[in-house]
Amino acid sequence: MFVKSTLSKNPQKIFESEQKHNLPSVGERIRKMCEELGPTFVKLGQILSTRTDIVTENVAKQLQKLQDSVAPFSFADAKAVIETELGDSIENLFAEFNATPVASASMSQVYAARLLSGPRVAVKVQRPGIRQSIETDLDILEKLAKLVDKYSKYGQLYDFTGMVAEFRRVMQQEIDFTKEGENTDFFRESVASQPNICVPKIKWVYTTQKVLTMDFVEGIKINDIAALTAAGVDTSKIAYEFTNSLIKQILENGVFHADPHPGNVFIVGQKCVEFIDLGMVGTVNNRFRRQLNDLVLGIATRNTLKIAQSISEMDTEDADVNMEDFVRSLDNLLDEYLYVPLGEVNIASVFTSVFQLASTYQMKIPREFTLVAKCLGTAQGVVEQLDPHVSILAIAEKTVKGILSDYIKTDDFKNEMRTFALDWADVLKGIPSSLVTFMHKLRKNDYAMELKVQHLERMEQNIERMFNRISFAVVLLAVCIVMAGVIISAGYSNFGNSDPDIYNLSAFALGAGLLISIIIVLGIVISMVKSSKKNKRK
């Protein structure tokens, strides 16, 4: 059912059938299935929600609603994990510890506490037995992916085994709280220059692989509009600060929060946007960041050629794509955005559409693109609640232009220009001697031009095959003519009671002609077989 519904070329027929019989949609059933199966499949569903090149749009919308929440586990279990990991009793470790969790998820739950030194902290405790459960789920997914790759045409296109391997890496990071702590410190440093952006500090003395302790964030969830308004917070300004920070994280810093849903973003005071839960942090290298900058600038300025070039540079498989055809397809795709005000363009939808188009041309985009699309898609939903008039694309365009303007002033840019100038100087130096050599060869008629025709070997094989068939037909025709002549001659001889010597001569001619024809036909057949084997070896 999953393959039929998500990979179907005619999902509309399935959708109409569901409506006709008042059944829950396939997307709803898949979402509920993921929630019942636990954290591994919840995370998998959340990632698939950004891959509309794999699942249908209806399924993707349902997967976006996945909530990573379950009933809390007992405080006794949480206490046992804390005391085992930290090597002491809770009473000796904390001045206060609230036994009721402030948040519960499928992988962990969070408690409010106070250190002996005074500060309030949040203590994140891993759910008992979750590691074994995730490893079992991942093993099952790995076996399924290998089967799909081996026996399905979709495996050749999407490399599900590679996806599961990447997913395993992400999940292993999620269940290692020390990695989340490192991500948090790394992320805090990357956004240190951004005003009004905050990240809690990790209390490393109270942190292990299964317990994470950090500053307690006393704020309002970013999507709690009523509470924000009651507190006198300017939601339009918050929408801008939140969006601007994410865009800078992606396009300028190269380190971004990969899952900025409302439960992971709080507003502290009047204007501080605080990011928490950094188990999943996306990183973008310099090369991919430049390509993303070009892509965003191309979308903002409606420059289809720039978009096509940036996507082509992203392609990890270096697919042989007809660029004219690809640009034409992009033009058709982006037509719906040309006449829409920039503020109304959903950049996450554009990214997803472009990603889907690239896959139809057998182009493979780096996994970072998926994380970026997921991040911006999540952010779009948050921003629309805060202020529908704030445009992520408009902010992104402004950020990209600022990045380019600042980059021109940097030493890196000056070094690149210096290297570029030196390379061209070397080329220019070599031009005079090359021209002299060329003219000298022309004067002596010592110049040869090599013309290479694409697929020439295939053309030769086709021509050889055609001549073999023509030869075969000519020989058969000749045999038929000879046989007809001999038979007619023998018939006339018998009819007129001619000399027996003539009859014998006719019979001999018939036999000799047949023998020679058979030898020629066999020779041609053997030649064709040898030629075919030779071509196969090539």
Question: Top keywords for this entry?
Answer:
elongated, alpha+beta, disordered N terminus, 4-stranded mixed beta sheet, 64% helix, 538 residues
Question: Any overview of this molecule?
Answer:
The longest helix has 40 residues, at 456-495. The protein is built from 22 helices and eleven strands. It starts with a helix and ends with a helix. By secondary structure, the chain is α+β, with helices and mostly antiparallel strands. 64% of the residues lie in helices and 8% in strands. The strands form three sheets. Strands 1, 2, 3, 4 and 6 form a five-stranded antiparallel beta sheet that branches. It has a four-stranded mixed beta sheet with strand order 5-10-9-7, with helices on one face.
Mean pLDDT: 78
What is the count of DSSP helices, taking H or I runs of 4+ residues?
22
State which percent range the strand residues make up: 5-15%
Report the major sheet: 5 strands, antiparallel
Distance between the termini: 43 Å
Name the quaternary structure.
single chain
Low-confidence stretches: 1-12
**Overall 3D shape:** elongated
